[in-house]
Specification:
The chain is an alpha+beta fold. Strands 1, 2, 4, 5 and 9 form a 5-stranded mixed β-sheet that branches. A hairpin with a 2-residue loop joins strand 7 and strand 8. The protein is elongated, with a radius of gyration of 37 Å.
Length: about 450
């Protein structure tokens, strides 16, 4: 081998040794980094660490602290209020956040102030809806006010305004009926029943009065035609005007009492003098009278309407009493069945909106959040408060971070949301049905010795 070839071989050998050295350095360095830095594999610190987990870092999944939830709820309530999200969307409105804060600290002045400001805005909206006849807006606003409370001054003021408006329109209706302007009266009644006032028993009583007035007018017209007919028999001793009206029968008295009690709102009480009692007595006095069935249908509608009004005030137990009374009159009546399902549905919807701690749910699959690499290298700890919906199939949806620690917030938030989005739970059962449920959990990233 000549000197040139030998030199070339030496150069090649040196290059190869250099590459091998670099590889060893990289591999060794990598091994050093992996053994010195804390592990990026999370460990649950509740005594149930997953198999193969290593010490160095931990991720805890816990129920959020009440004081954390309170401050966050107040903060989000103010932000939603500034954005004009008064009561919509239901789960992330100012109303929802302030009510959550109230459930955590009922006596807090900041909470009361927030709720009162929301109530004032809802009252203004409701009064505008009454003035414009917008029944859709009025109905949704009343539902929001009911969530605040049945004794809230804003709700009471709105109900007084609705009652005054209804009273005025019923007065107009009565004038039209007294003047035999039945078509106008019918139009007024239709305009009334397109709004929230359709839940008032006085409207149902007005409908019965219109039917009775029309029937009486028709009967009077027939009597007048008979008197005008040559073939009509003439009274021998006294004119029709002088004849004493026949005494009402027992059935007629019960019918009159039934209408009066419905109009007065005495549907199931007082005992012995309610509309339900009058119907039963009427049926006993005239079991074959077809008008009894028609009256029963009207009373069932009144009972269902009263139950709906009570349910709107979240008075669920009292509403159920009215529906039970209706079922006792006629089991399985469609109008009552619909009202009962609406009652249960409202209870389920209210429960679904309530944010509950994750500890009240049963996990079936937990994906562990990864400790962000950048945070590990900086030896930074953090936490994320997450809200999410457990759907009817047990999977999670609408995962959002509502509170994140300041350092490496983006990394911690992404890691928590990515993991929670893959969690699964046993679906929540409430009042005989599977419901969606809003849940809250705190994901804490910690370094361990």
């Amino acid at each position: 081998m000549n000197d040139g070839a030998l030199e070339t071989t030496r150069d090649s050998s040196g290059l190869i040794l250099g590459v091998v050295a670099m590889v060893l350095l990289v591999v060794g360095g990598g091994w050093l980094v992996l053994t010195v830095l804390p592990s990026s594999e999370p460990v649950f610190t509740d005594g149930q660490a997953p198999a193969g987990a290593r010490n160095g870092s931990s991720v805890q999944i816990t129920d959020p602290l009440p004081e954390d939830r309170l401050s966050r709820a107040l903060e989000l309530g103010e932000l939603a209020l500034a954005a004009g999200q008064i009561d919509q969307p239901p789960a992330s409105s100012a109303l929802a956040f302030f009510l959550t804060a109230r459930s955590l600290s009922p006596g807090d002045e900041r909470v009361a102030d927030g709720v009162n400001r929301v109530a004032a805005l809802l009252r203004e909206r409701a009064e505008a809806a009454i003035a414009s006849g917008d029944s859709v807006v009025l109905s949704s606003t009343l539902e929001s006010l009911n969530r605040i409370g049945a004794d809230d001054p804003a709700l009471l003021a709105v109900r007084e305004a609705i009652d005054a408006d209804l009273t005025a329109r019923l007065g107009q209706f009565k004038e039209q009926v007294d003047a035999d302007r039945f078509d106008d009266a019918q139009a007024t009644l239709v305009s009334i029943t397109t709004g929230q006032a359709s839940l008032d028993e006085r409207v149902l009583a007005a409908s019965a009065q219109l039917d009775a007035a029309r029937a009486a007018a028709a009967q009077s017209a027939r009597a007048a035609r008979r008197r005008a007919s040559p073939a009509a028999p003439q009274p021998a001793a006294a004119s029709t005007e002088d004849a004493a009206p026949p005494a009402p029968t027992a059935a007629e008295r019960q019918q009159t009492e039934l209408v009066e009690r419905i109009a007065a709102g005495n549907l199931i009480a007082p005992a012995g003098s309610s509309a339900v009692d009058a119907l039963r007595q009427w049926r006993a006095a005239a079991p074959d009278d077809p008008a009894v069935n028609a009256a029963q249908t009207r009373l069932l509608a009144s009972l269902a309407a009263r139950a709906q009004a009570l349910a709107a005030d979240d008075q669920f137990a009292t509403a159920a009493r009215y529906l039970d009374a209706a079922d006792a009159l006629s089991s399985g009546a469609p109008v009552v069945a619909r009202a009962r399902e609406a009652l249960l549905d409202r209870q389920r919807r209210l429960e679904a909106r309530r944010v509950i701690p994750v500890g009240e749910m049963t996990n079936t699959r937990v994906v562990r959040p990864r400790y962000p690499t950048r945070a590990l290298r900086a030896e930074a700890e953090g936490s994320v408060l997450v809200n999410f919906t457990v759907q009817a199939d047990g999977t999670t949806a609408d995962v959002e971070a509502v509170q994140v620690s300041e350092r490496y917030s983006t990394q911690f938030e992404r890691s928590a949301i990515a993991a929670v989005s893959q969690w699964e739970f046993e679906p929540r059962q409430f009042l005989g049905q599977t419901i969606e449920q809003r849940v809250e959990a705190r994901v804490t990233f910690e370094l361990t010795p």
